Amino acid sequence: MRFLVRDRLLSFGDDYWIEDDHGNKVFLVDGKAIRLRDTFELKDTQGRVLIDIRQKMFALRDTMLIERDGEPLARIRRKRLSLLRNHYRVTLVDGTVLDVSGKIADREFAVEYDGELLAVISRRWLHVRDTYGVEVVRDDADPALLIAVTVCVIHLAEKEREEDD
């Protein structure tokens, strides 16, 4: 499954559609601007909230939380002892750990579980300017979760880059 994301700086308050590779709208990323912390909702085409994404308050390191139906699903943050700034760890509530690594700012990275590729995020195979793709490699993977992870990682990397400037 491939999804196309128009590349805008992901800041809260932004809303944008994610399309499949046929140009059909699949998910809406709805940024919530009037909140103390950065908050997004991933919605389906009928407007139903599939996943809530929010910044964790009072964390030593920037952390994003993903919830489904009001229940915690995952926590995302930059890997603690990584020499590379572009390495993030996703911890699911069941203890499963996903690794996200690559060139986040260039939209060239991968999501893996125990060394097995789950999704590839890339601009290389697209000819549309300012667009990147999310290719979900495994059929049994949760596309909404992987897109939420992508949104979180890019948001955290952009925030970190802004703070360094």
Features:
165 residues, mainly beta, 13% helix
Task: Characterise this structure.
The chain is mainly beta. It has one helix and twelve strands; from the N terminus they run ββββββββββββα. It starts with a strand and ends with a helix.
Quick rundown:
The chain has 165 residues and is mostly beta strands. 13% of the residues lie in helices and 47% in strands.
N-to-C span? 36 Å
Overall structural class, as computed from helix and strand content, comes to: mainly beta
Quaternary status: single chain
Total number of helical segments?
Answer: 1
* Residues in helices, as a percent range: 10-25%
Please give the radius of gyration in angstroms.
15 Å
Shape: globular
SSE series: EEEEEEEEEEEEH
Q: Estimate what percentage of residues fall within beta strands.
A: over 45%
Q: Spans with pLDDT under 50 lasting ≥5 residues?
A: none
Give the biggest sheet. 12 strands, antiparallel, barrel
Number of strands: 12
Per-chain topology:
Layout lengths: L1 E5 L8 E6 L4 E8 L6 E5 L5 E7 L7 E6 L2 E8 L8 E6 L4 E7 L4 E6 L2 E7 L8 E6 L6 H22 L1
Antiparallel strand pairs: 1-2, 1-12, 2-3, 3-4, 4-5, 5-6, 6-7, 7-8, 8-9, 9-10, 10-11, 11-12
